[in-house]
Specification:
alpha/beta; binds pyridoxal-5'-phosphate; PyrdxlP-dep_Trfase; Cys/Met-Metab_PyrdxlP-dep_enz
């Protein structure tokens, strides 16, 4: 059953009816394998003559329900659930690419996706070109006869760069190249790449989809043919499967996705305006602000700007660390999309292994802060940020 409104679909679409007991909540089929009534039935399952479950790595009814629910929300024919967001990224890329193939990827990417392309893909003989994903000419001129995939995320760290999905789909379709978009930061409530003609949509379900900070999971949505190909090649044989219990937690999370995301956006908008006006804050990167380059895509591609904000403090690395350490309610943690406001300082946390020059080249200054605005009352979030900003400069010179 599918309805006209995503609010209804997050609750009802893709649900498998439990005809046996009429359970409202999805049953958790916590099983590793499935029994056959006869040897002949086992044979028929393996040959494909009979539909049905065989073994947990090849399918599970609870996980299947999540896949159907996500396909309904993204507006695709099917979906494949994975054990992590990176499981979904790697299974998708390795299903689409082989040695000698070429991928054009946006140069602004989730760190582990960048590492996968830069190191493992190249190790396996896959050619990679990184380009500014906003620039249609740059993408077109990077395309080679062996280009099989165009890969991007929008919006994305560190500067919340936004990429035009209509443009990506147009380039892919004109050249017969598969387009893949990581939609983690938006969720299908705010952005549905398939509507723009994108072929495959990836999520780290760890973030907004689950939304409660207690699961690592991923999913990829697309046509039945592509999803079947991913399942039969990389999911089956590499094996990054999702556990049924995690699928159940995400199904539960999805039921409130639309109201959670709405509040994340409302809170983030107010917080971004507070930050933009604050004298100790430099640039604020949030597509909800008119000053942000991605703002033009709001209302067309994105319903709202989401819950993630990046900003640069004035002063030095030490001021940023002092700010981080003064926070009382906001949690110092990576990840995003949880009820709690999560905050991280890339220069001393995620990007600390890099040399300062490398960080600067990636757009990460010493005072850049990444904030996943939570579901607390916005006044409490702002009060915590404000007291930490006030304390961040006492006794530390404002250099830089
Ligand atoms: C977190 C994240 C991932 C990786 O997901 P995991 O569930 O941590 O494996 C991929 N892409 C984006 C945009 C993310 O934020």
């Amino acid at each position: 059953m599918k309805f006209d409104h995503i609010e209804t679909n997050t609750i009802h679409a893709g649900k498998l009816i439990d005809t046996r007991f009429g359970a409202l909540s999805t049953p958790i089929y916590q099983t590793s394998t499935y029994t056959f009534e006869s040897t002949a039935q086992g044979g028929a399952r393996f040959s494909g003559d009979e539909q049905g479950y065989i073994y947990g790595r090849l399918g599970n009814p609870t996980v299947r329900e999540l896949e159907q629910r996500m396909a309904a929300l993204e507006g695709t024919e099917d979906a494949a659930a994975m054990g992590s967001g990176m499981g979904a990224v790697s299974a998708t890329l390795f299903a689409l690419l082989k040695a000698g193939d070429h991928i054009v990827a946006s140069d602004a990417l989730y760190g582990c996706t960048f590492a996968l392309l830069e190191h493992k893909c190249r190790d396996f003989g896959i050619e990679v070109t990184f380009v500014d994903g906003r620039n249609e000419m740059a993408i077109r001129s990077a395309i080679q006869p062996n280009t099989k995939v165009i890969y991007a995320e929008t919006p994305i760290n560190p500067n919340m760069v936004c990429i035009d999905l209509d443009m990506i789909a147009r380039v892919g379709q004109s050249k017969g190249i598969t387009t893949v978009i990581d939609n983690t930061f938006m969720s299908p409530v705010l952005q549905q790449p398939a509507k723009h003609g994108i072929d495959l949509i990836i999520h780290s379900a760890t973030k907004y989809l689950n939304g409660h900070g207690d699961v690592i999971a991923g999913i990829v949505c697309g046509s039945q043919e592509m999803i079947e190909h991913i399942k039969l090649t990389t999911l089956k044989d590499i094996g990054a499967v999702m556990s049924p219990h995690d699928a159940w937690l995400i199904i539960r999370g999805l039921k409130t996705l639309h109201i959670r995301v709405e509040r994340h956006c409302q809170n983030a908008e107010v917080v971004s305006e507070f930050l933009e006006k604050h004298p100790d804050v430099g640039t604020v990167f949030y597509p909800g602000l008119k000053s942000h380059e991605g703002h033009r895509l709001i209302g067309t591609q994105m319903k709202a700007a989401g819950g993630v904000i990046a900003f640069e403090m004035k002063g030095s690395f030490e001021n940023a660390v002092a700010f981080m350490d003064q926070l009382k309610m906001c949690k110092r943690a990576v990840s995003l999309g949880d009820a709690e406001t999560l905050i991280q300082h890339p220069a001393s946390m995620t990007h600390s292994p890099y040399e300062p020059e490398q960080r600067r080249a990636a757009g990460i200054s010493d005072t850049l802060i990444r904030l996943s605005v939570g579901l607390e009352h916005v006044d409490d979030i702002i009060a915590d940020l404000e007291q930490a900003l006030n304390a961040a400069y006492s006794g530390i010179a404002r250099v830089g």
